[in-house]
Give the backbone structure.
Amino acid sequence: MPPRTRTLRAATVAAVLTLGTSLLASVPGAGAAEPKPLAVTDHCRSQCADILPPGENGNATLVEILGNKAFGTHPAHSDDQLDRYNGLVPGHTGLTDQKLTDFFNDASFGVAADQVESVTKPRDDVTITRDKKSGVPHIKGTTRYGTEFGAGFAAGQDRLWLMDLFRHIGRGQLTSFAGGALANQGLEQQFWPQAPYTEADLEAQVERIRTTEGARGEQAMADAQAYVDGINAYRVKSKNGRYFPGEYVLTGKIDSITNAGEIQPFKMTDLISIASVVGGQFGGGGGGEVQAALSLLAAQRKYGVEEGTRVWESFRQRNDPEAVLTIHDGTSFPYAGKPDRARGTALPDAGSVTPEPLIHDRTGSAGTDRKAPVDAPAALEPLQGMYDDGVIPEGSLPGSGDGGQKRGMSNALLVSGKHTASGNPIAVMGPQTGYFAPQLMMLQELQGPGISARGVSFAGVGMYIQMGRGQDYAWSATSAAQDITDTYAVELCEPDGSAPTKDSTHYRHDGACTAMEKLERTNSWKPTVADSTAAGSYRMQVFRTGYGIVTHRATVDGKPVAYTSLRTTYRHEADSIIGFQLLNDPAYVTDAASFQQAASHIDYAFNWFYADSRTTAYYNSGMNPVRAAGVDAALPVRAEKAYEWRGYDPAANTTDYTPFAEHPHSSGQDYYISWNNRQAEDYSTAAFGFGAVHRGDLLDDRVSALVEEGGVTRASLTRAMAEAALTDLRGEQLLPELLKVLRSQPVTDPALDAVVQQLDSWRAAGAQRKETSQGSHTYTHADAVRIMDAWWPKLIEAEFRPGLGDGLYTALTANLATDESPAASHGPSGAHSGSAFQYGWWGFADKDLRQVLGQPVKGPLAKTYCGNGDLSTCRSALLTTLKEAAAVPATTVYPGDDSCKAGEQWCTDAIVHRPLGGISQKSIHWQNRPTYQQVVEFPSHR
């Protein structure tokens, strides 16, 4: 990834030489005339479709917000994609290619003359045309600046309030901006420590892209400036015209009567802040080594060092031979594997680990949920307290909430033309980014000099399409989560030579006792109409070192240390802009190979997928550091020169990165699937939970069957996705083994036997969580689903806790939650979030049960836990917990929340679009499905 790579490895030299010309071909040099737009030919011929619920329009005036609360009305195009998205649940069984647009938008380029709803010209060199059906902006510029200005203007029209929220989240200033609700406090406390920056740090990142990325970098920053100018132009117009988002009134920013107040101007550094939130949460990977060390120590305490390590490794499953893979042809891409003999590992002394304190100097309501409602005007009383639970409910974003954990997102299904009815490849793919109103992303089409694409971009960084389609190709991504974040143990010291303590704020670096850099953010708030939280304030504080941000304190071999988190993309939050620029350039992306090269310029950890009329392709992006020989990436490492990343420069946070050839990549495989599963053989995982059962199996089993049968169509591949989206992973993958254990002897209790029969009937019917009929809000096998939801946590505990012991079981569940069903609101994705079955102990249970049954197991657990390996004892434990689960009433399994009454099973699962502004949406049927999704099949190519 030149120029950030400090040493260019031999394997990349040839590629760089051959790409050098093409990389710069469509970028004008200084003083050169701007290139004319290439002729736009839509090679998809009405065979590209997309969807992004609830709707394109994410802005609402104060009057529109009041109307929504009083009468349930919605602004135009704020909810018109919701029913089509939801309709695929009952509609997928009879789906045909001709019916796809009943559930998706036509994603063709342009707008037919009779479908034009509005035309806006914010400048003479750009036109924004919106279509009647969905209101998507089709932005066409005659100049590069005008095109990007139009993109920014359209972003302001559709997501002004959302962009303002996210720039403040990225800057750690959410409470000062939107109110002190406890969830807002928690959100900024989760996000800011992961990417704390000064304004100078943010400015340096802008300048670095401009000055070190060549002509592409200069163009990217010029595009970004035009985009910001477009946002600000709309900001001013909407404020002066009094059609700005009503949330600015409700949070006290603008007076509804006098129009006094201001929407603060956007600037380039805001884009860096937004990028840090988006990229860090959806494109991060690694970290968590301190918690991993604690579970390893717990295993060693129970079993001894050698046997405990073996047990721990069997749960860690870095490179499990039974895991579902995206590249399944046997190609190996070794990365971050377990070394034969680890060097520099820094395990903490028992009981010595303490988290680094973040919050200081609390006043007023800080740390509490104390309310002090203001006297709201009568007209605004229906909206009083709408943000009392936070602008983004706790746990709604990955990495937020109590016990927040980054979660994998998105899925992709691609089939080679050799196995399709048409002979052309087919792709069904998209990012699974949660459900919000409005969505974090927005649909748009961009046509201008050097840009030709339609798709989605995250609001606030939408200079280019980030996932979508070009003239004759389409691309998408899933979170990859390979290890690009490491934990270092820095030795503490005192500058006067006295004995250090765990609280010391100096550390050893290059032989010197060096001061840590203190970064601070002081926030204060007062009650508003929207957020009644009483006035308060606090100061957030982190320490930054040459090895990253301090997260914990401990002792190692009796010496005080600070554990730090070092992420390769820190200080490079927006460098990926170069890759997105390339993906949007029709002169650059002409085939699978050029697509892979474009994707290689994206620094965050993503799996990228590509389809045109001839082939499919895959590339895994990310700034993968070259680690010192013998370093174990899964555990904390001593902060010493011998164990640093190779070529590491702390000032710029650059290092040597693994070359293109060492990243998993492939072209023309029979099919590809990804649901945040492992990428390829020997490409080690950065977290627990990538074993023999993974939600990727739900896709792999179905797509492989389609490929074997042949004649795949867009409809049949979409059906496979939709069927997997409604399936309970536990019911499909684990229940067959559970039933074998239960029926290893006759079930003599008639009532319990009936329960077993219920579960078996559900399994035989497909183990789906689906309504009896559209709108019934009752699952077909409702009681079996209830029993499984009640049984799973009980059976996992009964299966593993006795053998592991309380200490190790608790430590391992801190590494990996046992359950993430749609109803498991305690899981990392929270309630009503759609995404499910990513994290859980299904892989552990699968291996353990097969071991009990005496079946062959590759990569087995080091010990057999259910019944201590005895089938009869295991069966008794499962029957006991099943009987308990069957007796648990629905009101206990589904206790109710702000959206559902106790006992409402369908509602508990249902997707709720979390309102980020004043407009709320109706709940829809649960689907484990991408939020934005494309269905594409190109019949021709340039």
